[in-house]
Write a structure and sequence with these properties.
227 residues; mainly beta; Porin; eight-stranded antiparallel beta barrel; 1 helix; 9 strands; 73% strand
């Protein structure tokens, strides 16, 4: 009888420890990384987000959206009538950073696949810089050599409301792969400064302001790590 009690207690303790090790702890948060369809080596276009799992069907997502575009190209042309060679350098330096929050809810669930929708707010600040340097060189007349520089600097801000519709596949309990369609309506404001010069002599700077409402859409692919 004593041996029976010892074996019974051992089984109870072992089963308790085993159940604690294998019980699934509900996920409370998720860290997400996403890239847009036009992501490339010279254009970073992605999202970083943290999701708070409210319950099985509702989530709150805080996101950061950095955008960087750098591009350089050069063009050559030759005018045989006056023997002038023109070289043009184009430089693009654009960046922006967006922050916002989405409220997401599950629409349809089928095994490990969830369809979700949501809406949220986004605020973005950025700057677009475009510089053109043009040089003309004459092989017959040195006085026809010229250098022109035109540069536009355009800081901007916008605030908008966006909606999302997506699908997530839970590969495991801790990892999910998702794709979502984003649609954003926003109010934009910008102030441009246009600088120009000829042969290192500056022209007066021109300033322009603009504002308006814009609509945009895009597709985002990403992965979420739940913990």
């Amino acid at each position: 009888m004593k041996s029976f009690y010892i074996i019974l207690m051992s089984l109870i303790i072992s089963s308790t420890i085993f159940s604690q090790k294998n019980s699934k702890k509900p996920n409370s948060y998720a860290l997400s990384f996403g890239i847009a369809g036009n992501f490339s080596l010279d254009e970073f276009n992605g999202d970083i987000a943290v999701k708070k799992i409210i319950d099985n069907t509702h989530q709150l997502r805080l996101f950061l959206s950095p955008r960087i575009l750098t591009k350089n190209d050069k063009m050559y042309s030759f005018n045989s009538n006056n023997n002038i060679t023109v070289t043009q350098d184009n430089e693009i330096r654009n960046y922006s950073i967006g922050v916002g929050a989405d409220y997401l809810w599950t629409l349809i669930t089928s095994e490990d696949i969830n369809m979700f929708g949501g809406t949220g707010l986004v605020f973005t600040y950025g700057n677009n810089n475009f510089k053109v340097t043009s040089k003309s060189k004459s092989t017959s007349n040195v006085n026809d050599n010229n250098k022109f520089i035109n540069e536009t600097n355009n800081p901007f801000t916008n605030i908008g409301i966006r909606g999302t519709l997506g699908v997530e596949w839970k590969v495991t309990d801790k990892i999910g792969i998702h794709s979502e369609y984003l649609f954003t309506g926003s109010y934009n404001w910008s102030k441009s400064e246009i600088k120009s010069s000829r042969n290192d002599i500056d022209n007066p700077t021109k300033t322009r302001t603009a504002s308006g409402i814009s609509l945009s859409s895009g597709v985002l692919f990403g992965i979420s790590i739940y913990f």
